Amino acid sequence: MMMRTTFAFLVVFGVAPLAQADQGNPNLKSVDAIAFGPNGLLIIGSGTQVVAVDTGDTKATDWTKSEVANITEVLAGKFGLSTKDIEVRRLTVNPASRRAYVAVRNLKVKQDIILTVDGGGNVAEFSLENVKFTRYPLAVGTASVTRLTDVTWAGGKIVAATQAGDTFGSRVFAITQAEKDAKSVSFSTETYHVGHGKWETKAPIICIMPYEDDGQTGVVGSFTCTPIVRYPLQDVESKDKVKGVSVVELGTGNTPRSMFAYEKNGKRYILVNAARNNKKTAFGTSGYWAAKVDFTLLKETTNVNEKALWRVKGGNFQPNTDRVSVATEFFGVHQMAKLDDTRALVIRDDKGTMNLRVLALP
User: Fold this and answer.
1) How many CB atoms lie within 10 A of CB 167?
2) Which residues, 6+ apart, have CB-to-CB distance to 30 below 8 Å?
3) pTM for this one?
4) Counting CB atoms within 10 angstroms of each CB, which of 45, 105, 329, 342 has the fewest?
């Protein structure tokens, strides 16, 4: 019954169902990105494929714990490992249950595992041993997908950002088919990289989030050196070359890690966390930081691309606008995800200890 409910929900949102989902272990070689669609649908980016898993995790729970101290030690301990033996790769929150899902790599055996953390701070493994899943291979004609960077759910579609080995190397897949082994709609992106001062086609989008406003559906992406760019999804067909619209540059020398939109006091914002590529030039208290961006920048039509706004000016990191600010409470945040309408869940370096914390949205 759960399979029927989940895939009926997908029809409403624009993804046709498989006649019959697979059941068993999808046998993933890696977990490169994770995100959630509706009704507990876990989207996993793995190598050259996306796998959608029916978690059955749809019962809403309260998040009462404000901190899980030394979360890397807790996660490693589930497998009898030390913190040096694991890498926390991704963090997401299931909006249906508010349970956190964490992709963790066992460095000893080079195997990725998904763990969950509930609102009471309890950690468990999300086993892929016997799940209902749908597999979507990613292919670009004769060119191969060489890197998958992020996944999201946008406009009723599973969307994956990748890099492929062809002339237009930055590829976005919008999964709208559901027959087994069906080819997804894919399009290449051309982006004005504000920090580099030129149009680029090969640099992969590092992180993406859905964009829906005034009837328009698309995705927002960010790259290394952190321009924020919007791309349309409506009426896009395979082999299209889609020009993005760069609306703001957060600063060169940064790599974005995750981003999401939220509303506070009647205004909408985007929160982007990033890491300084050269930690010697870090500002604030950490090489990891976050920017709060005015959502209305995504509606810009004039001051875009070559005229896009810069967060700072000159080499002294002085603010250039009040439409982007540094979220100081998010210094040290390595991973983050939206928990609910007012809070974020983060993994933050607190003086050398990695703690899972609940932070108010800035």
Assistant:
1) 10
2) 46, 47, 112
3) 0.91
4) 342
